[in-house]
UniProtKB/TrEMBL annotation:
Protein name, per record: DegT/DnrJ/EryC1/StrS aminotransferase family protein
Entries under InterPro entries matching the protein: DegT/StrS_aminotransferase, PseC, PyrdxlP-dep_Trfase, PyrdxlP-dep_Trfase_major, PyrdxlP-dep_Trfase_small
UniProt organism field: Octadecabacter arcticus 238
SUPFAM superfamilies: PLP-dependent transferases
Keyword Transferase applies: yes
Stretches that traverse the bilayer: none
One of the GO BP terms on file: polysaccharide biosynthetic process
Length: 380
């Protein structure tokens, strides 16, 4: 089976993890701060906070922005359920903004119209979570300026987009947002098995996220409310969870980072090959905005008769997948009052969507096999 995505692990990666296993610290040692520093420097953010998943990163980001009961979070239907669930974690309610019909990310026109209406009704969201779907940045300049105009906060769900660029700069620099979040799940661009990272330029937000990822506990005397009682002393000064990343994960992440640009370049080369070689087939390839350099986490195409094409490809050893079932169509969200037809662009996109294999280790020969089988399947 040629999978739709998979990790790339070298002997250097293995050695990095083994070295940690033989060291003094399996958690809360030097690797996590080193990985955080490397990511912060790479994306040009002042702060990076490593956690055990992107979902946790989204959660602590929402907490840092004081999202709570009575508040509203907006994201897009075309994402993994975590982008919406984190609003519920905080006791907020969730709503959605439909996507563009060509790049499948949050539509700024729809966002603007929805904000205008919400403002007149006194129902503005506190936080919006645009998702850089497939590795392509949203129109952050417009989203950011709308957020400033309406006084709302922005968390970029950049789970797909480490190594991607927007207006020439790396995603994660938070030029038009408060916080950005990356995922290091094995199908994403680089991996720590499970893992995530939040980046921000804001020291106060970074501090709040650091506290909430580790029980709300601090050992920093400057942050304590009482006098230290001795070398053992710590204080819980905020509400928090245990969302820490392990040293093994951080060592793997650091080792993977040395190949990040290579991974993204290879994904782009493969995507360009798909763009070219799929031209003769009856499929719609994903559009790219001119201001964006995608990290190409996914290569989502549109096909007629999707269910049959999907089944035939799976039967022929092509591990295709579908990204995403619109979140508002999940039974759990439907029970909150969402209906079919609420976000028609995301629904129409979903009806014909297939993600075909794309990962750094995909060979040209295997890609040719994918194209050949896809050609057969789409000719019916
Ligand atoms: C993978 C993913 C997440 C969740 O990432 P985890 O690290 O698995 O928690 C969130 N949002 C999007 C868009 C994702 O693709």
């Amino acid at each position: 089976m040629i999978p739709y995505g998979r990790q790339d692990i070298t002997e250097e990666d293995e050695q990095a993890v083994i070295a940690v296993l033989r060291s003094d610290f399996l958690t809360q040692g030097p690797q996590v701060p080193a990985f955080e520093g490397a990511i912060a420097q790479y994306v040009n953010a002042k702060h990076a906070i490593a956690v055990n998943s992107a979902t946790s990163a989204l959660h602590i980001a929402c907490m840092a922005l004081n999202l709570g009961k009575g508040d509203v979070l907006w994201t897009v239907p075309n994402s993994f359920v975590a982008s919406a669930n984190v609003g519920l974690y905080c006791g907020a309610t969730v709503d959605f903004v439909d996507i563009t019909p060509d790049t499948y990310v949050m539509c700024p026109d729809k966002l603007e119209a929805k904000l205008k209406k919400a403002n007149t009704e006194g129902k503005l969201p506190k936080v919006i979570v645009p998702v850089h779907f497939a590795g392509q940045s949203c129109d952050m300049r417009r989203i950011g300026s709308l957020a400033v105009r309406y006084g709302i906060k922005v968390i970029e769900d950049a789970s797909h987009a480490i190594g991607a660029r927007y207006l020439g700069a790396l995603v994660g620099n938070c030029a038009y947002s408060d916080i950005a979040v990356f995922s290091f799940h094995p199908v994403k661009i680089i991996t720590t098995a499970e893992g995530g990272m939040a980046t921000t330029q804001n020291a106060e937000l970074a501090h709040r996220m650091e506290l909430s990822r580790s029980h709300g506990v601090t050992r920093d005397a400057d942050l304590m409310q009482n006098e230290s009682e001795g070398g053992w002393y710590y204080e819980q000064v905020a509400f928090g969870y245990n969302y820490r990343m392990t040293e093994l994960q951080a060592a793997l992440g650091l080792s993977q980072m040395s190949r990040l640009d290579q991974f993204v370049a290879r994904r782009n080369a493969l995507a360009q090959r798909y763009d070219l070689l799929l031209q003769g087939l009856d499929v719609k390839t994903p559009a790219q905005a001119s201001d964006s350099y995608s990290s190409y986490h996914l290569y989502p195409i549109q096909v007629d008769d999707r269910a049959r094409v999907f089944a035939e490809l799976r039967e022929n050893g092509i591990g295709v997948n579908v990204h995403y079932i619109p979140i508002h169509r999940q039974p759990f969200y439907a029970a909150m009052g969402f209906h079919k037809g609420d976000f028609p662009v995301a629904e129409n996109y979903y009806d014909n969507a297939i993600s075909i294999p794309l990962y750094a280790g995909l060979s040209d020969a295997d890609q040719d096999t994918v194209i050949e089988k896809l050609g057969h399947a789409t000719r019916g």
